[in-house]
Structures are given as C-alpha cells and as structure tokens.
Design brief:
The protein is α+β, with helices and mostly antiparallel strands. It is 46% helix and 17% strand. The protein is globular, with a radius of gyration of 21 Å.
Length: 324
C-alpha cells in the first residue's frame, strides 16, 4: 500500500469505516493521499481531507474522500451515540487507541462538502427542508430527558456554555469606541434586559425539563450537509444538554419550524402550537445575543469586514432585542 499517511491506526480505521459504509467483507486500503481542504471550519479543530482508494476480495473497488478531524472526547462520544441510534449524522469512527483519550484525537468520517441549497431553507414544501426537520426532531426526541454524565448541561454556566459571555465582552470593547457609543450606545440597556429575559426563559425550561435534550447549539446552515443525498448534522464541538428550541432558531423560519413541531409530535413529544410558537420566538433572543459577537468583531476590524458584515450585525441586534 502506498500512502501519504503512514499511521497504521488511521489506515485500519479507514478500512473498518469503508467496510461498514459499503457493507463489504475483505476490504483493503490501497492508498491514502492527503488533499487540500476547501474550507477550514471555525470550531478550532484541525481537519484533514484524504482520498482513500480501496479494493476487496470480490474485485469491487473504488475511492472515498474522508475527513479526519482532531475531535474532542465529547464530540467523539456524541457521534458514537448518534450512530448507534441511527440518527442523521455521517458514519464516524476513531482508532481504538483514541476512543477514551481525554485529548483531541482523530475522528474519521465521509467528507460531506455540499449542503442543502439555500433556497430550500425557507420553503416548507421543499422535500429537503422536510427531511432536515424530521431528522432533527427524531434526534431530539431520542435523547430527550436523558443527559449522559459526560455531556455538559447548558444550565451549568449558561453564559459561557452558550457563548453569550463572548458577546458581552466584545460589546464592552466596542463601547470604548466613541463612534460606536454614539451610534449604538442607546441599545446597551435594552440588550441587558433582553439577556436577563433569555436567562429567565432558559432557567424555566430547564426546571420544566421535558423539552431538554442533546443540542448541537451551533446548527447554522454550514453544519447541515448532504451525505448519500440525505441531510446530516455535523460539528458537535459545542454540543450540550438543554432546551430543544435553541437548535431551531439558526436554521428554521417560523413556518418551517412547524414542520419540526409536527415531526416531533410524530416522534412522541407533542407540543401545543401556541406554546411552540411562543417558545420558538423567545429562543430567537439566543441567536441574536450569541451571534451579535460576529458583528461586533467586524466593527472592530472596520473597513471591508464591517461593510460586508454590518447587515448581520443589524439582523442579530434586531433578534437580540425582540426574538425571532
């Protein structure tokens, strides 16, 4: 076997993963070549892209592009759990030596570059939108009211766990700029009130408990990809246990969120329409207060970064003040 990657553990894990994907016995890896990665995600984890050529005893052969991510133990455990449940995630496998490592360790999975087209995001009649809604509802329902001991809870340190403190820190830095203060200082008090409102809302849902489940918490469109023509959810670095509504506001409009509500009822957890809509709108505060940080960083960068990103700043500011 010729290879750019000489790690025997990685080679054997590639073989096991491909044998599982293709349901073939006697599969052997012929070569592993590293390829340029089109896009490095924002999670901070190193990701490598490789092309694996394989052959098996029956004469079947082919090649597959795999991503090798230096994933946290939490993400590796989550992908193992969700694969065992048959959820809408890509098949993933770590070398045996990495399974229980507390450090970042390799996690191999098929490279899913493409994602559902943007035009389907707001279309409740698009089959792909319906598949995303069903997949997320099924995942949430299967893990509702079950928090593994290794999964952090959103209620434990909400400000840092849900990345809300980062926005507060960047807001304080921007307020040191007299230009920013003149233009946006009027929103400081309303934003503090919105944050208090969101924290009260999340605390109430956590105490109620019935809507709490395994969350991605960063389910933006880039983290929903296509694998074998079906949508799958990737990048579980920021996952925690908390109210399911937090996974909806990044992706679903109110109209398409109703597809999710219907699918959730079909999976055994019905929520009254009025209560669902009210909670969905209130959870919009989370998206605004969390991702406002991006716009604040663009302000500090200035120039083209602000010109290109100010729309997102105002979009998040609006949600931070009023919800979805």
């Amino acid at each position: 076997m010729s290879s750019d990657i000489c790690d025997a553990g990685i080679t054997d894990t590639c073989r096991q993963l491909l044998a599982c994907i293709h349901n073939l016995a006697g599969l052997q890896v012929e070569s592993i070549r590293e390829l340029p990665l089109p896009h490095q995600g924002a999670s901070g984890a190193e990701v490598r892209l490789v092309r694996v050529r394989w052959r098996c005893d029956t004469g079947a052969h082919g090649e597959e592009r795999l991503a090798i991510k230096q994933a946290s133990l939490k993400e590796r455990r989550i992908l193992q759990l969700l694969n065992e449940q048959g959820q809408a995630v890509p098949p993933a496998l770590s070398p045996p030596s990495a399974v229980d490592s507390v450090d970042r360790a390799p996690l191999l999975m098929p490279f899913a570059r493409s994602r559902p087209m943007d035009r389907v995001l707001g279309d409740p009649n698009a089959p792909m939108t319906q598949q995303v809604a069903r997949g997320l509802a099924r995942l949430h329902a299967a893990n509702r009211e079950q928090c593994p001991v290794w999964l952090p809870r959103a209620a434990d340190g909400t400000m840092t766990r849900l990345y809300l403190q980062a926005t507060q820190d960047e807001w304080a830095r921007c307020m040191d700029d007299a230009r920013f203060r003149r233009k946006y200082g009027q929103y400081e008090r309303p934003l503090r009130e919105s944050l208090a409102r969101l924290l009260d809302f999340l605390a109430a849902l956590d105490e109620e408990g019935s809507c709490c489940t395994l969350l991605n918490t960063d389910l933006n469109p880039d983290h929903i990809r296509l694998y074998t023509g079906r949508p799958v959810f990737i990048d579980w670095e920021q996952a925690c246990y908390g109210p399911l509504y937090l996974d909806l506001v990044n992706y679903f409009t109110l109209e398409t969120a109703m597809l999710y509500r219907d699918a959730l009822a079909g999976a055994g957890y019905p929520v009254a329409t009025a209560a669902f809509m009210q909670r969905y709108r209130e959870a919009g505060l989370f998206m605004g207060l969390r991702y406002l940080e991006v716009g604040l960083l663009n302000w500090q960068a200035g120039g083209e970064a602000w010109l290109q990103g100010r729309w997102f700043f105002h979009y998040c500011l609006s949600m931070a003040l009023g919800g979805r």
